[in-house]
């Protein structure tokens, strides 16, 4: 890996720290050649601290280390993207990130959809909500709907109408998300189960 430490007069380049699993940005630090070499040798992210004017391994005092997974260089060879597995909160103020955000896994629009389903579950008396009506009818009705949508998806998979297949697949996934919440679970629980199997 070719890194150009000469682009700044102090020999420091920015190192963006990203959670290897959630892909959330945790913090920004600076590395010189020695910090980079130490990071690779110890597999714990080490910076050059501008305030301390010395090498500083994140977590050396708190125990909240950043365990190295991967390092990538940008197109100009002067910025690093460092993938890590954080041990505890990253920020010295005790938060997951230096922007006071929770370092939680999200799944794009599916996470938005989960939030909407949660709001309907919490407002089951809403007469205008289809999802609320399913929660009112209970787990048996929700499970039945998942079964119906699964059968319809299988039927469309055997035909050549791609639009119908995609629509039935969307219906199946939507009702499955409702079933998960009816049972007290989320997509994250399913992902964790799959990850355990993968190991």
From TrEMBL:
Residues 27-99 form the Phosphoribosyl-AMP cyclohydrolase domain. InterPro entries: His_synth_HisIE, HisE, PRib-ATP_PPHydrolase-like, PRib_AMP_CycHydrolase_dom, PRib_AMP_CycHydrolase_sf. One of its GO terms (cellular component) is cytoplasm. GO terms for molecular function: ATP binding; phosphoribosyl-AMP cyclohydrolase activity; phosphoribosyl-ATP diphosphatase activity. The keyword DNA damage does not apply. Keywords: Amino-acid biosynthesis, ATP-binding, Cytoplasm, Histidine biosynthesis, Hydrolase, Multifunctional enzyme, Nucleotide-binding. Its main location: cytoplasm. It catalyses: 1-(5-phospho-beta-D-ribosyl)-ATP + H2O = 1-(5-phospho-beta-D-ribosyl)-5'-AMP + diphosphate + H(+); 1-(5-phospho-beta-D-ribosyl)-5'-AMP + H2O = 1-(5-phospho-beta-D-ribosyl)-5-[(5-phospho-beta-D-ribosylamino)methylideneamino]imidazole-4-carboxamide. The keyword Acetylation does not apply. Its EC number is 3.5.4.19, 3.6.1.31. Residues 110-199 are annotated as: Phosphoribosyl-ATP pyrophosphohydrolase. Pathway: Amino-acid biosynthesis; L-histidine biosynthesis; L-histidine from 5-phospho-alpha-D-ribose 1-diphosphate: step 3/9; Amino-acid biosynthesis; L-histidine biosynthesis; L-histidine from 5-phospho-alpha-D-ribose 1-diphosphate: step 2/9. GO terms for biological process: L-histidine biosynthetic process. It is an enzyme of class 3 (hydrolase). It is found in: Cytoplasm. Residues 1-109 are annotated as: Phosphoribosyl-AMP cyclohydrolase. It comes from the Bacteria. In the C-terminal section; belongs to the PRA-PH family. This is Histidine biosynthesis bifunctional protein HisIE. It comes from Flagellimonas olearia.
């Amino acid at each position: 890996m070719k890194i150009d430490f000469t682009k700044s007069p102090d020999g420091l380049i920015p190192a963006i720290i990203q959670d290897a699993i959630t892909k959330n940005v945790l913090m920004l630090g600076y590395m010189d050649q020695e910090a980079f070499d130490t990071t690779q040798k110890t597999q714990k992210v080490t910076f050059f601290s501008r305030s301390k004017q010395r090498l500083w391994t994140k977590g050396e005092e708190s125990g909240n280390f950043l365990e190295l997974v991967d390092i990538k260089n940008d197109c100009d060879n002067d910025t690093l993207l460092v993938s890590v597995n954080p041990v505890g909160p990253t920020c010295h103020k005790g938060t997951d990130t230096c922007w006071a955000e929770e370092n939680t896994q999200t799944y794009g629009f599916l996470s938005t959809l989960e939030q909407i389903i949660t709001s309907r579950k919490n407002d089951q008396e809403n007469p205008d909500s289809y999802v609320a009506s399913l929660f009112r009818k209970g787990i048996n009705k929700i499970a039945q709907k998942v079964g119906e949508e699964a059968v319809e998806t299988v039927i469309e998979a055997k035909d050549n109408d791609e639009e119908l297949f995609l629509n039935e697949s969307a219906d199946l996934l939507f009702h499955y998300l409702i079933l998960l919440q009816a049972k007290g679970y989320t997509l994250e629980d399913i992902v964790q189960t799959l990850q355990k199997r993968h190991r």
